[in-house]
Amino acid sequence: MQPDLGTGWWTYIRYDQEHDRPKMSWTLFRRVWGYAKPYQLKVMGLLSTIFAITGLSLIPPLLYRDLIDNAIMKGDTSRLNWLALGMIGIPLLSAAIGFGQRYLSATIGEGLIADLRNALFNHMQRMSLRFFTHTKTGALMSRLNNDVVGAQNALTRTFINIITNLVTVVATVTIMFSLEWRLTLLSIVIVPIFLAPTRRVGRKLRDIRRQSLELNAKMNVLMQETLNIDGALLVKLFGRQADERERFRRRSTAVADIGVRSAMVGRWFFMGLGLISAVGTAVVFWVGGHMILHGVFTVGTIVAFGAYLTQLYGPLSSISNAHVEFATSMVSFERVFEVLDLPIEIQDKPDAIELPDARGVVAFHDVTFSYTEGGNDGPTLLRLRDDRYAREKAPTVSFIAHKPDRHLALEHVSFEIKPGELAALVGPSGAGKTTITYLLPRLYDPTGGKILLDGYDLRDLSQVTLAKSIGMVTQETYLFNDTMKANLLYAAPDARQSEIEAACRTANIHKFIASLPEGYETVVGARGYRLSGGEKQRIAIARVILKDPRILVLDEATSSLDSQSEALIQEALERIMKGRTSLVIAHRLSTILDADVIVVLDQGRIVEHARCSKNHSAHELLLEQEGLYASLYRTQFRDADPQKISMR
Q: Which pTM does this prediction carry?
């Protein structure tokens, strides 16, 4: 059941034996075919090879009959030689066609994997920041890897097997009827026995398949969280290696156990089918033997018939299991579609406005925001409820949208920044300063009110315009595990080396990079871990300088840096803020003293707000109000050197 995203919040969709039955609907088939359609010519070629190989596989039993009844019984040496060559040539020809079949299958399969992964990755790239703060990275990696491969197998393995077996059964039964219709009827009498257990086994294997995928995702989450540099450091610092090894052992054991369970269920099923096949074969040979003794047909005919029985019961077993295999393989497609169907919270309007050059006028008008309540239809988040697998047989996969609570990160916030002005955000921890810096580049949409850039609502502007106009330096600098140059070029891929070096000089990082043996080709390590905090921040500043945005958003926190790094960063920031509209989470008194606008926040509300006048700075005006700002100033900055003290 598809939830109604426009009428409110919804919670869980449970998948169990009642609701998680194979969705053999034309809607699903059409959607799956949508991904296979670009390869339809290759699919037709693949089907042609199936027909050709199946046709060739039907010839050898006829050769056996002719060899026994004619070549051997009549002593025809020439016929014997030709039949022997035919028995060699047919497998060779079949193998050659099979090589082409494998090529087509691999081409379709790998292309499908790439298409599905691209679709998933593209969709995830469009998701809002809220999605990533509520979703485990390891779970997403599982969708991109395990589920995509499973979906590919649904088309390139399961589909091929089903078609091959259907063609084989139809062709084999046709030839068997031409040989001896009574034995053929006797052979197919047991077909209903093949079909009886498939429904129950299909449901069981489907449930096991879903559990297997979810348990693999759970294991991937643990690996992703503990094997990255930050996770590994945390584990070592707290001495939790043994605990993490045990946690991973439990999860990997659960994956192994579900694999064994799947294998055993399938084995019991196929063992039963094999027994039924053996009984059917024995009965046919018993009756056929009596018919030979009575001269009804020849020995060659019963030999050929026996060979066809093998070709009949093998594919017949597979066809009886086709429902099981297809339903199981569809789980992967459904899990892929679960992600692709997640609504995109932050997206451009059809007529989104492109601004060639922003002037830099920023205005917040009565902005209210809650992290638990979306700005559009609300976020619909993918969440894998791994904890339930320890307690329930049936897995649970859910799209979760949290019901909003009454806590607001921002409430009725209004202020304006003119072009080229510096606005300082001041307030205690949790006041809403970072939230404001996230809303301006539209990482989130406000729950209420609006934010304007040059008089346009951010929701009316294209995201490309916002990305081009706004540059952001966060307190936590993220660098890719690549070279210095590659990380800098992320802001401006076409930048020349001279431009890169100029930006680094402005950010006070060029001398350091030039002193390294490999210079700008030095690899920074995972998350820039080979660099100090100050070096990473200066690279981040240089990266923003290369971008050359009209509006600058930054958190100038430098509490973890030494005095030299802090001085270098502060000097770099003062350079890049000149002539730009700047919104700064201000921790240093020097920044606050230079600010054109000071916004004082507390518990999501603006409690004080001042703009510098002709005769007084914003700082002086706020001190006169004897409010929160004055209290913070007197507590932390009385008799302080503004160049050395940070406002925390």
A: 0.71
